[in-house]
Amino acid sequence: MAHLQCLHVGIFLVYGPLDFTPNRDCLRILGDFKVMHSLTLLLLYNPDIGNYRYLMHDMTRLPDVTCLSLTVMSNGHCFGASSFHILGLCTGVRKLALNYFEAQTPCPSSCICDQPTHWKSEKLVLDRLQEVEISELSGTEHERNFVQRLFSWATALKKMTVSFHHSITESKAKGLCQMLRSFSTSELYMEFYVHRCLVGKVLYVPED
Q1: Coil, strand or helix: which one is 77?
Q2: Which residues of 95-134 are buried (b: 16+ CB within 10 A; e: fewer)?
Q3: What are the start-end ranges of the E strands in the chain?
Q4: What values do phi and psi take at 68, rounded to 5?
Q5: Is 69 helix (H, G, I), strand (E, B) or coil?
Q6: Can you give the pLDDT at residue 206?
Q7: What residues does each domain of the chain span?
Q8: According to the model, what pLDDT value does residue 201 have?
Q9: Separation CA 47–CA 13 (nearest Å)
């Protein structure tokens, strides 16, 4: 399949049993390609991960991709380390789409999902990344922490598009817009979208 340009490899379980078959199949597919224009990955966290092994270290390489779509079904867990791991294998990416599906209830403070913590301080250079799209942002602490780090890694970022979760009120959307702008530079062009009943997703322009 020398001319394949778009690849969706399905679900990769972040915490699970050793030699998890779906993860092994996913890695086998990824290993067949050196270059890929568009790659779609889905990271899944089980609600209870206490007795499982962290599996991201099994993923040691990804194709050289131009556009990366990363969906995170975190079930309330911290997803910073796993997302950092993916981006560290795709440092040449030019366009990044992040899709979040957070649980309403966060995991316990004693949960192991915040390990390893190196992503909070380790430097990552994404100097080719020019455009980021974030979907279903609800403003959880995990999301805020990761997006803030993303701004520091993406030194050449030109455009960011953010679509808020349908539960976000206008007042909360305004606060999230202010927070995101405080992370960014004045040169970055930002667009925000909110959900309206009977209309769907519409452009949101917060009042200064």
Answers
A1: coil
A2: bbbbbbebeeebbeeeeebbeeeebeeeeeebeebebbbb
A3: 6-13, 15-16, 35-44, 53-54, 64-73, 95-101, 131-137, 159-164, 189-196, 200-204
A4: -120, 125
A5: strand
A6: 76
A7: 6-204
A8: 85
A9: 12
Residue 12 near residue 42 (C-beta atoms within 8 A):
yes
- Smallest CA-to-CA distance from 146 within 114, 112, 173, 168 is with 114
Rounded distance, CA 172 to CA 168, Å? 6
Residues whose CB is less than 8 angstroms from the CB of residue 13 and which lie 6 or more positions away in sequence, other chains included: 20, 22, 23, 44, 46, 55
Q: pLDDT at position 161, please?
A: 96
Answer for the pair 6, 35: CB distance below 8 angstroms, yes or no: no
Tokens 């990804």 -> residue:
62
Is a pLDDT exceeding 90 seen at residue 72? yes
Model pLDDT, residue 104: 63
* DSSP letter string, 8-57: EEEEEESEE-TT-HHHHHHHHHHTT-SEEEEEEEEEE--S--TTSEE-GG
pLDDT in tens, 134-167: 999 988 888 999 999 999 999 999 999 999 998 8
H or E, element range at 171:
helix 170-183
Note the pLDDT tens digit of each residue in 15-39: 999 889 999 999 999 999 999 999 9
Amino acid (one-letter) located at 188: L
Alpha-carbon distance of 62 to 91, in angstroms, equals 10
Considering only 47-51, 82-86, 175-179, which range has the smallest mean pLDDT?
A: 47-51
